[in-house]
Model the fold of this input.
Amino acid sequence: MRKILLSLAVLALIVLAAGCNAPAPAATVNGKAIPMTAYLRQVELATNYLKQQGVDDKTPEGQQIIAQMKGEVLDQMIDQEIINQAAAKENLTSTKEELDKELADIVAQMGGQAALDEWIKTSTYTKAEIDQAVRDQLLTDKLIAKVSASVPT
Done:
């Protein structure tokens, strides 16, 4: 009986330890976690962009640029989460129609859907990531407009 209880205790400890293996968030903003996976994805996208711009991550200068970029990416993600929380507090949202209009403008600026699709392939962004970036920008613009309107001139 004692062996069974000891085995169960060890098993319980193993199960608890396994549950602790969840990755820590990259940051927490007012109790809301910014997942490490989201941060690492943004770092990957920014690193790819810097490499396309000629930054060599094998040189000390390139490594310094990428290290600085990693901090900037996290700062931007924290800022966006603060904006998203403030927008939610103000009941600001973006509609599908607004998103579709902004995406249509992007397609036009890129020179058509084929050009955008090619850019998506070479940039490693996904359509969902582009949609999210546009949604974030719409909320940011709405929050800025609301706050600006309340500032006395």
